[in-house]
Amino acid sequence: MSDIGSRTAIAEIRAVIDDWVSAICRKDAVCVLAHCSEDCLIYSLAPPLKAPETGAEGLERWFATWSGPLGYQFQDLEIVESGDVAFALGLAHLSGESRDGGKSTLWYRQTLGLKRIDGAWKIAHQHESVPFYMDGSLKAAVDLDPGSAVEWDAPSKPPMAGVIAYLTAQDANAAAEFYGRAFGAREEGRKYAGDGKRLIHCHLTINGGALMLNDPLPEYGYPWKPPEGFVLHLVVDDGNFWWKRAVAAGAEVTMPLEIAFWGDYYGQLRDPFGVSWAIVAPVKKDH
């Protein structure tokens, strides 16, 4: 291809990527997928290890975890093309505010593979990754930015404080997704069993605290048992907001949210996995 043809192709590819990024920012799943080929393969930050881009449902669920538009941009984007194939690579920055009010920002590596199909450039492969700290912790280095200088001899972060609930759910993947919709859970990491389907570990953060999940593993002596004898308490500022969101997501009301005898709002819910939750919040007085 001539230099002029190559420059034209790169300009076309950059326009496709710019529109794809814009669609992500405004959470337009249909437009995002319109820029992808039918056989688009994704190696994303989220599990599983690889997944085909088959529909808008999963993307819509992820978009729904954010309260407003997303911030998404590339830095140092490089595009190379040859014939009907091209690659774009650079550093991506994602930012936004989750449904529970938490603000997130993340830099990661992004590579896009594109094919020219019927004269139009389509994203056929997406690959995202973050580096890991090589101090034995194997923690993802999600706190880096392009200007970060890592002090390799610095001590690792201290262990998490307090008592952490560790739940066994019949479908831990579904439970994690439900807790995202119902309680604004932010996922910190997942590890899958050898079958690639069941979770042996999932770390969520809800209301600033940690919650761990796994699937039943009867072959290792951990069969599923119905949860009983405990309630997970969420002490929050706006009880009405947390309550309505959980109920809208499908939590069952077992005790209405009312002013309790000690003066706070209090109510209990049961999630689809049999776990009982309590919402506790102060009664706000008008000034």
From TrEMBL:
Species: Sinorhizobium sojae CCBAU 05684
UniProt name for this protein: Glyoxalase family protein
Listed CDD domains: VOC_like
InterPro entries named among the record's database cross-references: Glyas_Bleomycin-R_OHBP_Dase, Glyas_Fos-R_dOase_dom, NTF2-like_dom_sf, SnoaL-like, VOC_core
Domain VOC residue range list: 160-282
One Pfam family per UniProt: Glyoxalase
Segments forming a coiled coil: none
Top-level taxon of origin: Bacteria
Record Gene3D superfamilies: 3.10.450.50, 3.30.720.110, 3.30.720.120
High-level lineage: Bacteria, Pseudomonadati, Pseudomonadota, Alphaproteobacteria, Hyphomicrobiales
